[in-house]
């Protein structure tokens, strides 16, 4: 995002959604600074302290328990922030459907715990802000009205007015990002039939060409000849999502039925062809008895290693969304989990969660969905999300 200067808190709050890419709801966002400039933003779901097992500070003798809970959650969130390199100051911002209601900003006890933990960890807390349903304000401003300041001040901010349409991307919507495109029923029927044909013809052995019948159906150039799975996948990635033929979509659906080949597709399309070949080779080593933690590519799934090319990942997401829309419903969980992982790789955990939920609705026991659910619930982010540069 181009450099903009926020003259006041309302301007700053107008910018925050563009730092995270969408309008946060029921979230706490840590806007991180190196010196005077922002260097990143981390968004977390706002903790639900009204759930069973949680105690809020209150007059019924639960103050100590509530404070301990706030401190525990704050410690976890600040621990994640601490992985960002070179951060020296933070502004936590709460976005909530709750209101001031004439009683001051909501979540005051929780934000106090967050600010205390930030300062304890060596960060300067430049401000702590709240955008509620009926107003906005600063937790650190004693003059903030009990009913909050008018939201119109944020809406009227002109801090972004000078930016071009190219520089200022439209704010995303989590549900919109997770929606699959509309596809034709006839194409879906053709894909379903081809998946059944291709399932028995896919051989993931490294270097083994794909079946010539599959190559002809996909329409690979004759000069290229039938390649192996990774080279065929690389050719498919270059297809415009809006123009993918049923045969190419069916090939991908048939391939990802195998967990090992699913990981090849996912990591190759996130990184490059060489990565796909290495992941495939590691899958065969694992099948022959090599321990998973000894495989050179094992860390990539956990977000360890070089950062993938965001543009390539976005291309893969667009293509897989179309393929998932064309796939029979029962065949979608691998594709939905791939979409979850790719969004997680870009730091979009909220979108990843939508895809995991969609996979769980079809197959509650799908193994990759279970792994991703654990990752998301623990707030784990890929290590490359914290790398400088």
Automatic annotation (TrEMBL):
Pfam families: DUF4192 (PF13830). InterPro entries: DUF4192. This is DUF4192 domain-containing protein. It comes from Conyzicola nivalis.
């Amino acid at each position: 995002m181009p450099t903009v200067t926020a003259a006041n808190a309302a301007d700053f709050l107008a910018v925050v959604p563009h730092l995270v890419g969408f309008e946060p709801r029921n979230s706490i966002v840590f806007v991180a600074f190196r010196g005077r400039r922002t260097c990143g933003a981390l968004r977390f779901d706002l903790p639900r302290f009204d759930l069973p097992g949680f105690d809020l500070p209150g007059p019924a003798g639960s103050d100590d328990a509530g404070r301990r809970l706030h401190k525990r959650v704050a410690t976890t969130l600040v621990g994640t922030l601490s992985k960002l390199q070179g951060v020296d100051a933070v502004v936590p911002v709460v976005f909530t459907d709750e209101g001031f209601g004439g009683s001051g900003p909501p979540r005051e006890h929780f934000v106090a715990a967050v600010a205390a933990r930030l300062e304890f960890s060596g960060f300067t807390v430049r401000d702590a802000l709240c955008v509620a349903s009926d107003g906005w304000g600063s937790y650190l401003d004693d003059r903030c009205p009990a009913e909050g300041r008018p939201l119109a001040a944020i809406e009227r901010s002109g801090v972004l007015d000078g930016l071009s349409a190219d520089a200022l991307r439209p704010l995303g919507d989590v549900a919109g990002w997770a929606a699959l495109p509309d596809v034709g029923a006839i194409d879906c029927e053709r894909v379903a039939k081809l998946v059944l044909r291709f399932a028995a013809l896919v051989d993931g052995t490294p270097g083994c060409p794909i079946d010539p019948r599959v190559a002809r159906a996909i329409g690979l150039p004759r000069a290229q000849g039938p390649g192996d799975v990774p080279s065929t996948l690389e050719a498919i990635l270059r297809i415009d999502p809006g123009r993918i033929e049923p045969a190419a979509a069916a090939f991908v659906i048939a391939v990802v039925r195998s967990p090992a080949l699913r990981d090849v597709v996912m990591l190759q399309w996130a990184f490059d062809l060489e990565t796909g070949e290495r992941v495939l080779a590691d899958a065969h080593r694992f099948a022959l008895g090599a321990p998973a933690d000894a495989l050179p590519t094992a860390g990539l799934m956990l977000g360890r290693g070089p950062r993938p090319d965001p543009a390539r990942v976005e291309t893969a997401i667009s293509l897989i969304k179309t393929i998932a829309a064309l796939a029979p419903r029962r065949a979608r969980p691998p594709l939905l989990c791939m979409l979850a992982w790719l969004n997680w790789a870009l730091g979009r955990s909220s979108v990843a969660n939508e895809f995991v939920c969609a996979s769980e609705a079809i197959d509650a026991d799908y193994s990759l969905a279970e792994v991703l659910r654990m990752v998301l619930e623990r707030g784990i982010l890929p290590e490359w999300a914290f790398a400088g540069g």
